[in-house]
Amino acid sequence: MKSLFERGPSLLTRLVLALLCAATLMFLDHRLNTMQPVRSFLSTLVTPVQYLAVLPEQTLDRLVYLSTTRSMLREQNEALRQELQELQMAVQRLNFLENENARLRQLLGSDVRQASRRMAAEIVAVATDPFSHQVVINKGSANGVYEGQPVLDNRGVLGQISSVGRTTARVLLISDQSHSLALRAERNDIRVLARGTGDLQRLELLYIPHSTELEVGDKLMSSGLGGVFPEGYPVAEVIEVNRDERYQYARVTARPYAQLDRIRTVLLLWPPSAIEQPVFDDIVVDEHVD
Amino acid sequence: MWIKSGLIPLLISYLVALILMVMPMPVFLEAWRPDWLSLVILYWVIALPHRVGIGSVLILGLVADILMGTVFGIYATALLVMAYPAIRHFQRIRNYSFTQQSVIVALLILVKRVIVYELEHILNDAVFNLAYLYPVISSAIAWPWVFLILRKYRRHYLVRE
């Protein structure tokens, strides 16, 4: 419809101009990769939206916490204490094994493995688009986070950092359709390539011959071959092996150990080879002292 | 004279839509999350077609691209193509019943989602899954409420053309 006093170009012209503008940006971003600085600047700019998005959840958590009774807290405390004791015992054994491993590796003349540095971060937003599985965390370049950094949760590998803002960073999950990583079966050292399927509970193993020795229940660890994820972290468990000869390769699917659908806290890892250094917030340090 | 009345309430409604778009939700609801940003944009272009137009939609689309971490311009293109018929026929849509409006909104959001998928498919080899279209239904169900709430909001804060 045309209003009597409409000024400026017609609606269609404006639409075409806007579409051209969007198409140019798409071209610049995807083909020429020139938008990265702009993107990280704008990510910093929209950070308040992401913090506001988690505010209701945090308030709810706070309310739930305030309404917990004394006896419940005591029970929880007891359970946690027990868990801590068990973990401490496991760590004792681990320290001993680590030392032994380092000594044996020295004897063999191979490099001694160095410890990675780590930092905990919290999720502030999720991208709900099924074509891109991403989450945003509350640590950014100010904390030493860098692009391509591995991210874990308490059960296994979660994904890697895909872009960094000043106080936030974006994590590409291993279930994203554009993400693959090199794995190794714990039982028989078969090397496999796992690709995300866009389903949070499923990874697809590529190029597996029909005669594979992989079986349901096999544990897949990161192999360290891609150069992004350090070696030896648990990633996924094989849940299905379909040796149907009609397909070119056996169809093997695995389920990630990390709980991709209910991530709250993640662990950022700085491998020994990383140039960047973790920068801890003062607030975090204070919490540890408490 | 450049700042018309009700600019702040208008911006707040955009902000709320963007927040709802990225808010973490329980898994079983996640797939059914209504397309809040599209609903809010559609309401404003039907209610104030001479104020909220192509330019506003383009900017909101680019902000959505940053928030969702997609390639720049994907959401912008999809939202523009979705908003155009609504701006073009706002007088007709205003006179429809809620049921008819819901059907139109569902169709427009379907178009938007298909465009997002096609662009993702061309640029990043995305694979289609049906769950991506569930929000078309939930958005159509949410439309009458969004419409009523925003109309009340608009009249209360005197957001005018």
TrEMBL record, chain A:
Protein keywords: Cell shape, Coiled coil
InterPro entries recorded: Cell/Rod_1, Cell/Rod_MreC_2, MreC, MreC_beta-barrel_core
Residue ranges crossing the lipid bilayer per the database entry: none
Annotated ranges, domain Rod shape-determining protein MreC beta-barrel core: 123-270
Coiled coil: 70-107
Keyword Coiled coil: yes
GO biological process, one term: regulation of cell shape
Record-level GO cellular component terms: plasma membrane
Reported function: Involved in formation and maintenance of cell shape.
Alphabetized NCBIfam families for the sequence: mreC
Family: Belongs to the MreC family.
Protein name per UniProt: Cell shape-determining protein MreC
Species of the source: Pseudidiomarina indica
UniProtKB/TrEMBL annotation, chain B:
Keyword Membrane on entry: yes
TM stretches of this protein: 6-29, 36-60, 66-86, 98-119, 131-150
InterPro entries the UniProt entry points to: Cell_shape_determining_MreD, MreD_proteobac
GO CC aspect terms: plasma membrane
GO aspect biological process, one term: regulation of cell shape
Predominant location: membrane
Topology relative to the membrane: Multi-pass membrane protein
Alphabetically ordered keywords of this record: Cell inner membrane, Cell membrane, Cell shape, Membrane, Transmembrane, Transmembrane helix
The keyword Mitochondrion is annotated on this UniProt entry: no
Protein family according to the UniProt entry: Belongs to the MreD family.
Role noted for this protein: Involved in formation of the rod shape of the cell. May also contribute to regulation of formation of penicillin-binding proteins.
Protein name from the UniProt record: Rod shape-determining protein MreD
Organism: Pseudidiomarina indica
